Every structure is written in C-alpha cells, then in structure tokens.
C-alpha cells in the first residue's frame, strides 16, 4: 500500500494513519515491511521510521516490522511479508 507524506516532511496525515491501523488489524502473523522515499536518505529513513512507529502504535510488535529507505521518489509504503 502506498502512503503519502507532505512534501519535505515525515509527518503522516491522519487518513494515512487510519490506513495503517487497518493493515495492522488484518496482518495476522505476517511481518510488515515499512519503506520510505525522499529527496535524501535522512528524510526517507524518517518516513520509514514514522510508518514503523504508527504500526507499533496500532499493535504491531516492533520485532515484526522491517524498515527500508531509498533516497529517491516521495512517500512511503507498507507491505505484508509472509
């Protein structure tokens, strides 16, 4: 699932948080991959970490979350990993 961020920011809009809550509730035993993209690696990593934090806040154990970041593009994504 693709997720949007405000340009140049790692602040996750409230509607995107709701989508992450849905994923957390439906994941079963799957791990979750959270990825961030940005103009630079620190921004991309901050976005990936923000997604991971939102997933943890939604009940996903931190040990079940993997993060990745790429200094290209914009936004982020979450993907179930079986």
Using the coordinates above, name the CATH class: Alpha Beta
Please give the radius of gyration in angstroms. Answer: 11 Å
Looking at the structure, the CATH topology is 60s Ribosomal Protein L30, Chain: A
N- and C-termini, Cα separation: 15 Å
Flag low-confidence runs. Answer: none
What multimeric state do the chains show?
single chain
Structural class: alpha+beta
Largest sheet: 4 strands, mixed
The CATH architecture: 2-Layer Sandwich
Integer average pLDDT: 95
Strand fraction band?
Answer: 25-35%
How much helix, percentage-wise, in residues?
25-40%
CATH superfamily: OmpA-like domain
Which overall shape is indicated by the principal axes computed on the Cα atoms? globular
H/E series: EHEHEE
Kindly describe this structure:
- The two termini are 15 Å apart.
- Helix 2 links the parallel strand 2 (31-37) and strand 3 (65-70).
- With 82 residues, the chain is α+β, with helices and mostly antiparallel strands.
- It is globular, with a radius of gyration of 11 Å.
- A 4-stranded mixed sheet has the order 1-4-2-3.
- The model has no long low-confidence stretch (mean pLDDT 95).
- It has one domain: 2-Layer Sandwich (60s Ribosomal Protein L30, Chain: A).
- It is built from 2 helices and 4 strands, in the order βαβαββ.
- The longest helix is centred in the middle third of the chain and has 17 residues, at 41-57.
- 32% of the residues are buried.
């Amino acid at each position: 699932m693709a997720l949007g961020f405000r340009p140049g920011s790692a602040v996750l809009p409230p509607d995107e948080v709701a989508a992450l809550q849905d994923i957390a509730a439906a994941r079963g035993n799957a791990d979750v991959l959270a990825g961030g993209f940005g103009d630079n690696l620190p921004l991309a990593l901050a976005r990936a970490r923000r997604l991971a934090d939102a997933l943890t806040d939604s009940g996903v154990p931190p040990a079940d979350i993997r993060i990745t970041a790429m200094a290209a593009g914009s936004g982020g994504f979450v993907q179930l990993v079986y």
